[in-house]
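Both lines are given unchanged directly below:

***
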Amino acid sequence: MLFSTSTIFRFVLTGLLLLGSCTALPVNMDLGKRQSPQHEGKQLERRAGAVAKVTNHCANWNNANMFDGPSTVNSEYIYYTGTSASFPDRRKWISFDAMFEANRPLMKQSCGWNRWGPNNTNRQINWIKNYIQQVARASRVDHRAILAVIMQESGGCLRVPTTNNGVTNPGIMQSHNGVAFNPLAPVTTIRQMIIDGTQGTDYGDGLVQLLNRYGDYYSAFRAYNSGSVSPTGNLSHGNGATNCYVSDIANRLMGWTLAPSKCR
């Protein structure tokens, strides 16, 4: 299929913008509570998609993705609880490619399984992979962490409904009042959904800001789901959100996909 000159220019320009320099944000102590993105029994609304933007928010250098893990996938679910020190070391996370390919079959079926509309196409799944990589490089957030949040929040389904519990959470990362998928602008909205969840929006924090605040990935995941971390440091305490969220994310980073969960 031939691409127009304008389409090619848009891809090149986007890549240059995403790969540009960025500045870590100062700590923002006004983080609002972000409710758990459970879709049943809650008010759902769709956004048609907003004007695309590119941010320059990035994580501190200690969070940069400077290595990748093994290709061996651990499909068993292991229940993790306690402080971040009780969760798997980042050097044990599986490689991005192994993790993405383990989740590709889920991305192909998750929309249909949940009755959210047509399943993702192979081209759309490849766009997700491409823009995770670009946003990871631009934001200094580990590409595996971005993928794990996508799978936890939406199963990779582009048509995941928007939740609204006082905070509007649209898109495959259920970002804070960000952009939802628009089938009329798939490339633009796929890219922006990943930017919104990773680098934040004008309305709330993404992984970048939470990493800079808490200093480790697992605490950032906890705050991404529930808005804060328990004063005890116990990451299984959901503060009204999903207690198993961080344990689920940790297992995804080790290769878990469909094995029965042992978290209750």
Notes: The beta strands are 44-45, 162-164, 168-169. The chain has one domain: 74-264. The chain has a mean pLDDT of 81.
